């Protein structure tokens, strides 16, 4: 079976049997029982019982589907799903994450992930009050549980790599705790206990951008979140993220996003702002 790209994160856990998954432009990879796969942005891929099989295109469905022989016990069973990230900040998140997160069953996290997914399955089959809120929290737990896995490729630049480096983690915590501060490379290097040049190189290697550029991206992510929610004035947003005035914030926002804060807020779909 083949699936088209899906502009949202996707996940799957293999419950029984094994399969081969081939992402566009890559070699087939084998997945077995208990393996967990998280795709921050789902690319085109194929799913098959053996490598090299060209299947027909399928549309994802939100009901159980059985392919092939409809009789007897299935050779392969998996559970997959997707969740939505606010489009305003999706680009920032995807830039900070690896393209594929594969957690093999042999790494010992299958039981934890399976427990969370079991709760998601159970909740989807119920119609109790608070269902949507519980599902949202369970999906958040699933995402965090996958992202905290330390077997992830440490060579991929991004926020996770930075947080796994104790030196850079101190810096990131300080920046996130006081985004209003007029941080300089020298001040951040002092927190890291490194020279300016060593700190800048280490930060860039781990996160894929310089510390001041990262701070600017993070401020804009917070600003976009506030604009989407629509409960704060531009003056308040500017003050909370470290700009001296609404005018200075608007200028910086337009420079990075290509539009004014007001136009951005008006362009957000109603469903996303809700």
From TrEMBL:
Signal peptide: none annotated. Residues 169-267 form the HTH araC/xylS-type domain. PANTHER family: HTH-TYPE TRANSCRIPTIONAL ACTIVATOR RHAS, HTH-TYPE TRANSCRIPTIONAL ACTIVATOR RHAS-RELATED. SMART domains: HTH_ARAC (SM00342). Gene3D superfamilies: Homeodomain-like. Transmembrane segments: none annotated. It comes from hydrothermal vent metagenome. This is Transcriptional regulator, AraC family. It holds the Pfam family Cupin_6. Keywords: DNA-binding, Transcription, Transcription regulation. GO terms for molecular function: DNA-binding transcription factor activity; sequence-specific DNA binding.
């Amino acid at each position: 079976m083949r699936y088209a790209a899906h502009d949202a994160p996707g996940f799957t856990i293999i419950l029984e049997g094994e399969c081969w998954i081939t992402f566009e432009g890559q070699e087939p990879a084998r997945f077995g029982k208990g393996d967990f796969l998280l795709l921050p942005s789902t690319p085109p891929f194929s799913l098959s019982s053996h490598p090299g099989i060209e299947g027909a295109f399928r549309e994802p469905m939100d009901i159980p589907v059985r392919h092939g022989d409809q009789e007897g016990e299935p050779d392969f069973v998996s559970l997959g799903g997707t969740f939505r990230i606010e489009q305003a900040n999706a680009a920032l998140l995807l830039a900070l994450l690896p393209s594929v997160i594969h957690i093999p069953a042999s790494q010992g996290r299958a039981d934890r992930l399976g427990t969370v997914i079991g709760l998601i399955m159970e909740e989807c089959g119920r119609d109790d009050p608070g269902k949507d809120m519980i599902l949202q929290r369970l999906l958040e737990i699933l995402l965090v549980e996958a992202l905290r896995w330390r077997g992830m490729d440490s060579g991929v630049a991004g926020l996770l790599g930075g947080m796994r480096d104790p030196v850079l983690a101190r810096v990131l915590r300080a920046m996130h705790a006081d985004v209003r501060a007029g941080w300089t490379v020298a001040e951040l290097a002092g927190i890291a206990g490194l020279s300016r040049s060593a700190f800048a190189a280490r930060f860039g290697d781990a996160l894929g951008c310089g510390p001041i550029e990262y701070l600017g991206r993070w401020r804009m992510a917070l600003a976009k979140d506030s604009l989407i929610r629509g409960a704060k004035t531009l003056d308040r947003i500017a003050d909370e993220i470290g700009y001296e005035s609404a005018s200075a914030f608007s200028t910086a926002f337009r420079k990075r996003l290509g539009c004014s804060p007001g136009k951005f807020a008006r362009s957000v779909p109603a469903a996303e702002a809700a």
